[in-house]
Structures are given as C-alpha cells and as structure tokens.
Amino acid sequence: MAGQDLTKILNKIEPELRDDLLRMFALTSQRVTVTQIETLIAQGQIDEAIRLVTPQAEIFAASWASAYVFSGKETGAWVSRQIPVEVIFDQVNVRAVLAMQNNSLRLVQSLSLAQRNATREALLDGIRRGVNPREAARAIKQSIGLTARQVRAVNSYRAALKDGDSSALTRALRDKRFDPTVANSIRTGSPLSQAQVDRLVDRYVQRQLIYRSEVIARTEALRSTHEGNDEMFRQAIEDGHFAAEDISQTWNTAMDARVRDTHTTMNGQIRDYGEPFVSGGGNLLRYPGDPLAPAKEVIQCRCTLSTRIKTLANPLNFSISVESP
In angstroms, rounded to a whole number, what is the distance separating the alpha carbons of residues 221 and 216? Predict the structure, then answer.
C-alpha cells in the first residue's frame, strides 16, 4: 500500500475526530446555562458544578472506535488486493474489542480530568479576582473544552485587554482583525469597553478550543490508524496468511526541525514484527502514538511506520505518511 493511500485514511479520520470533539464541547455548552452554574456556586455545590460542565467523553470515544475499525478494514482491503485471499478485519475479535474499550476508558478519563482541572482553574481565578457568582459562572462555562493552562492564558489575555497591556497583541491565537482597535486603545490610553473585551476574549477562547481539538485529533488519528493497522496484521498472521517473521517494520520521522529529540535517532530503525522500537529517551514504542508509551513520546507525533511483507515476489511496503500540519 502506497503511503498516499493511508494518507487518505488519515485525512478522513483526523477532521472527523476534530469535528466530533468540537461538537461534543458545543453540546455540553448548549445544555448548561450560566444560571444553573451560578445557582450551584451560590449553594456551595462546587463538585456538582464541575460535573455539570464535564463533556460526555463517551461521544468522542465512540468516534475513536469508528476510526480504529475503519483503519483496520482499509488495511485488510488493501492486503486482500495483494494476495489471492480475502483478508477481513474482525472488529469483534476479543483483542480488538479490548483495544477499543481500553482506549475508550483512557479518553473518558483524560478528557474528564482535563475539564475538572480547567473548571477549578476558572473558579480559583474568580475567587482571586473577587468576582460575583454570576461572573464566576460565566468563566466556568467558558472553560468547557479547554485545559487549565488554556484557562490561565484566557485569564491573562482578558487582564491584558482591560489593562491596556501591549502583550495582548502578542498572543498567537488572538483574532488579529481587532489589532488596530486594541493598538489604538493602548496608544491613546482609552480603555476598551466591557463588550469589546468580552468579544475579543470569546474569539480567543474559540481559537484555543479549535487548537486543542486539532492537537487531540492529530494525535488520536495517528494512534487509531496505527492501532487498527497493527491489529489487522496481527489477525492476518493468526489466520495464516503470512508469518510474523515475514514482516519487518521501519520507523520514519518527518525529518524536519520539529521532530522531537527522542525521535530523531529512531528514523530508519527496522524491527521484526512485534519487536518494539526504542526512542532516544529509552522508551519502547510499538508504533507512533502507542498508548502504552509516555505522553511526551506521542502527543502530536508525526512519525510514521512502514510495514514490509518480505515473502511476496514483489515485497510490499505498507506505509503511513502524514502531511506536516
């Protein structure tokens, strides 16, 4: 399978995962009102307020499972075109089901924890600023889908706008269309109105949300594609279509300045099927995006894996290539 063939799989999976994430965050925001959050805060039911704004991560977990199955089926279809036997991806295989369940649990836990931390950060900022419950509730609702770090960035951006701080013009995710307005406010010393600040912050939040969704989608698309790919080959081996020793795999990096230091030394590493690759940091990875590897080795990874079936008359190279974002 040519690299561009699997790039098509990734190009289908990644935007779908991103859109599903954004849809999940939007649905959560739509079903929660500022008044509901304000009431819970006033009653001291902080945990209930946090629960209220936590997205139903099962929605995204289901999308991930669909991407995993799609990758496995596409891999099977490609292999079937190369050998005179139909190779079918078995999505109810015990191992495949377990992989989907484990990844579902991982995603639900990580997304839920991230939201709890973001909500607490929004609440703590409100306490520090001494805002009323209504304003605190707005900030909590605005935190839906963000990380605690992003909430801090939003709070800092809001403060810079209110204080006429020129750092407001250095934020990478700001809406640059409003730069002349902000620059004029700073130059003349005329504060922006509350409506203007709110509008700029809302735009900044939306861009932070899109950025986070793209980061997660890029990471999870590569992971689900490689996992589905790996499971299909494992099933094909178990079904006797070829033996594990007939397969070799090669790690490929994007070969640019953005490749993480621990992966530069991995470029060109060749392993027999089932033998893990070793990163420059000493970590073992089965494939790019391996969920068993440390987060620092997989988040936004752009590395790819090529699989070579050596026993065919014309050895096949099954590779995943990803366009640099």
Answer: 8
Beta bridge partners of residue 317, listed in sequence order = 308
Residue 227 has pLDDT above 80, yes or no: yes
Selection from 237, 239, 256 nearest residue 303 by Cα: 256
Q: DSSP letters of 164-210?
A: T-GGGGG-TTS-GGGHHHHHHHHHHT-PPPHHHHHHHHHHHHHHHHH
Residue 164: how many CA atoms within 13 Å on its side-chain side? 10
Query: pLDDT tier at 253 (50, 70, 90 boundaries)?
Result: confident
CA distance 66 to 9: 12
Residue 259: DSSP 8-state: S
Nearest alpha-carbon partner for 287 in 62, 48, 75: 75
Mean pLDDT of the chain: 90
Count of Cβ atoms closer than 10 Å to residue 316 Cβ: 18
- Smallest CA-to-CA distance from 16 within 74, 52, 60, 53 is with 60
Q: Does residue 66 carry a pLDDT above 50?
A: yes
Q: Under a CB-based contact definition with an 8 Å cutoff, are residues 70 and 54 in contact? A: no
pLDDT in tens, 128-161: 888 898 999 999 999 999 999 999 999 999 999 9
Task: Report residue 76 CA to chain centroid gap.
Answer: 26
Please tell me the distance from the alpha carbon of residue 15 to that of residue 325, in angstroms, as a whole number.
12
Among residues 106, 119, 95, the alpha carbon closest in space to that of 58 is found at 106
d(CA 252, CA 7): 14
CA pair distance 204, 168, nearest whole angstrom = 11
